[in-house]
Amino acid sequence: MVGIGPKQPPSRKGSMTDVPKNLLQTIKDFEGQFTVDTKKLKEIVDHFVKELEKGLSVEGGNIPMNVTWVMGFPNGDEQGTFLALDMGGTNLRVCEISLTEEQGGFDITQSKYRIPEELKTGTAEELWEYIADCLQQFIEYHHGEENLAKLPLGFTFSYPATQEYIDHGVLQRWTKGFDIEGVEGEDVVPPLENILKQRGLPIKIAALINDTTGTLIASAYTDPLMRIGCIFGTGVNAAYMENVGSVPKIAHMNLPPDMPIAINCEYGAFDNEHVVLPLTKYDHIIDRDSPRPGQQAFEKMTAGLYLGEIFRLALVDLLDNRPGLIFEKQDTSKLRKPYLLDSSFPAAIEQDPYENLQDTEELFERVLNIKPTPAELELIRRLAELIGTRAARLSACGVAAICKKKNITSCHVGADGSVFTKYPHFKARGAQALREILDWAPNEKDKVTIQAAEDGSGVGAALIAALTLNRVKAGNLAGIRNMNDMKTLL
Length: 490
Known about the structure:
Blueprint: H1 21-34, H2 38-56, E1 66-67, E2 80-87, E3 91-99, E4 106-114, H3 124-143, E5 151-157, E6 161-162, E7 170-171, H4 189-198, E8 203-209, H5 211-222, E9 226-232, E10 236-243, E11 260-264, H6 281-289, H7 299-302, H8 304-321, H9 344-351, H10 358-368, H11 374-405, E12 411-416, H12 418-422, H13 426-437, E13 448-452, H14 456-474, H15 483-487
Parallel strand pairs: 2-5, 5-8, 9-12, 12-13
Antiparallel strand pairs: 1-11, 2-3, 3-4, 6-7, 9-10, 10-11
Helix pairs in contact: 1-11, 2-11, 3-4, 5-14, 6-8, 8-11, 9-11, 11-13
Family: Belongs to the hexokinase family.
InterPro entries: ATPase_NBD, Hexokinase, Hexokinase_BS, Hexokinase_C, Hexokinase_N
Protein name: Phosphotransferase
């Protein structure tokens, strides 16, 4: 991928000649609140590096820096057929992946299932039964009455989990809007395996992984320059390969210090103490009204789950505190519904190709029953730009912090998630922030490039299951709990 230079997406400041002074001042106020300059970015990154190191220490910190027991990158020769189960924030996906003889090659069959909203605050039993339903449907549809040998499953569980073994994981806390009682503090593997066993399904969980770790491994499968895997979607996170000797919290295991081990940062929790992040009043409201106040501070400023809500809160603030400024004599009741707007709403505004912002006008009428004036449309567009730009620039801080911590001067970063793949200008804005943080010369080609990842939660999960079985075969049993069960998969 060619490095993205410092050129930024065009601003619409030139379209504001007819905007009244009071609205221009409001835009200026928003610019003051949401703009993150180079100096602030560097300050955030310096604090970020310290927090990453703290997470690896015995004491720990806000950022969990979870040890994944994924030891090393694939070499491209991995083979076999594997299931992958991907439990994200919105969908559940089941894949069957065959790693082929061709180096770095694979075939994939997959089905996607929507996670019902009521399940996110339901019971643990309902959750595991639903997941088992999806796996059973997949097996029955694609294999009918076949007498299958036991299939190894890579379970992508995209929530912070402590792992003493690769086939085990204790949920630390729910994120992405989930709040199911009785799961936090528990190992999530046994309840699912018990239901699979009860149903007689030929499936054994070989590895519990995070989507970010999967993204790292899947991307490295096809790109030897890959060093970091990131998710910029409903939530935010990153994974990278660390040396065991740099992880004091597992020193008691006496593993070889130069052995590589993947770390799932879970850095959506960066700066929960609010030391360095440039929080606005809207960020404070989001935190206060969330299911987990005081947690996931970084995620709440950068992730797709929150961008539409930040945008909505800013407009509601104007309605409440500057009456008559916008949407005068219009019914604004719809705008007052929390989380009515997801990140696709400000994304659609930024994508509006028309000079008169016709698409944005129609969007407001259709979704909110509000007809903005031309001047209001300019304010709306600028607000969306500011929120999207801030998210991209802050997101780059996590990548830069890992590069600084590991002394990485040049690498590829694999990224997945709806914000990265669908939000306009996100990649370019993130690339520009990296240039500023890492002090590249104006005409210097980007040394760290963030690019679209391979399918981490599918292919990555299958690869990690394959790598785990290869370790069992080689007798490297560090971080593997059920060795006898694993051997039945060989």
